[in-house]
Amino acid sequence: MVGRLAGGRPGRTGDTPPVRKTVRGAKIAALPVAFAGRRAAGVGKRALGRSAAEIDADIQLRTAQHIFEVLGELKGCATKLGQLLSLYELALPAGLAEPYRLALAQLRESAPIMLPATVRAAMADGLGASWQWYFKEFDDRRAAAASIGQVHRAVWRDGRPVAVKLMYPGAREAVLGDLDQLRRISILATVFLPGADVKAVTEAICTSVRAELDYEAEAAHQQRFADAYADDPDFVIPQVITRRGDLVVSEWLSGTPVSRIIESGAPQERSRVGMLIIRFVLSSWQRTGLLYCDPHPGNFRVLPDGRLGVVDFGACTPWPYSGFIDSIGDIVDAVLNGGPADLDRAMRGHGFVAPGRSFDVHAVGAALARLCEPLTTPTFTLGTDWLRHQVVPFMDTRLTNPNRQLTMPPEYTPFARSLLTAMAVVCRLGTEGPVRSEFARWLPQLATAIERFDSTRDLPTDLGMVRRSRTAPPPRRFTVVS
After folding, report:
1. Is 39 a residue whose pLDDT tops 80?
2. Looking at residue 162, what DSSP letter applies?
3. 143-154 burial string, b = 16+ CB within 10 Å, else e?
4. Percentage helix, strand, coil for the chain under 3-state DSSP, each rounded to 5
5. Looking at per-residue confidence, does 331 or 481 come out higher?
6. What is the rounded distance in angstroms from the CA atom of residue 164 to the CA atom of residue 144?
7. Whose CB has fewer CB within 10 Å in the chain, the N or C terminal residue?
């Protein structure tokens, strides 16, 4: 109850994630066994005359529901895996995606709730037995769910509205146990990412979740962003007030969740917000030396003055690899302005083709040309149909899929997570705007490639964009932090 700093109140029925390792391990281990059983049963059903499409749809439905039932209890890994599944669901045809959409909606609504007594105990662990002294008001009802905890609204002793982020009791031990089990269920990735490097995907998830257990690092990242974007005309990052153990207190941001803008915002507002998200993700590494890796809708708020508020900095990483920018420039230039030999040289030179391996450079070039469409025109609309046309062919399970001939340097994994997640949100918003100008502003190597492309086709070039790219200081280089 707001203003009630001691004592209890009748709590809603809630639960915390199961922490017994044997129970959690059994629940996760059941997923691939059940999936394999469904696939085997499908073979028998085909023999009885059921169509492949009907059987596959049934397998998708049952698998999605089973995943919800297990992940809904585990948390931590569940939330991150659920975010990846949401990207997959977005790329699927509407009929096939429906089971995942329903399961993910249930997953979001089923987050466990810490009861008031547990909340007060966690507050005492972080701030001491007299923790009430720090607050004028404290609401022991959860205001929002975080991946491994929850957020409470309060008023700090100096009158500032604040957000108090608490980790679920036992979450650290439980999640670390989940990570070991998660590595053993790589077969599930064949449901969502056919043909992917399953080991690399699993390790990326594990690294992401493990990093978010460190609230000290999260608070430091958030303050670094808050300092870099102080008084920015486009963005607001809440200041960190204190961090004690598994508790972080920061300024409260009041605004409209981007998820609501996606659902009911006017087209012009959706496009404006989408362009701001692109700008934030692309600008963050130059302004902070950190890559913001978790740009999903729940981490953005549109403030009353129109600025974009950003929260949750647990999934940040030091700018890991400066060569990424060069690789993007070389590959895009080869796609827009070169030929097969140029693309072959760029792909091999930056490690996207294993040494000594052949690949269908013409097919890969055609796929990349579709992906580069937003860079070929001053204004472009990024929508779910466009995204689906990029993702579905890439995830084609047939051996003839040329993307199976490619690889990705492991150091690019944080970039892939950040950009793909951001693009999924931007596409859900149906963003229309000067996409290529925004990319060229923060990735100057693209401006030269775009200018060359326009000059050979007698297209008007955004000269302001080119001038900015030429006069801007060179990108900052950051050393790898282990």
Report:
1. no
2. E
3. ebbbbbbbbbbb
4. 60, 10, 30
5. 331
6. 10
7. C
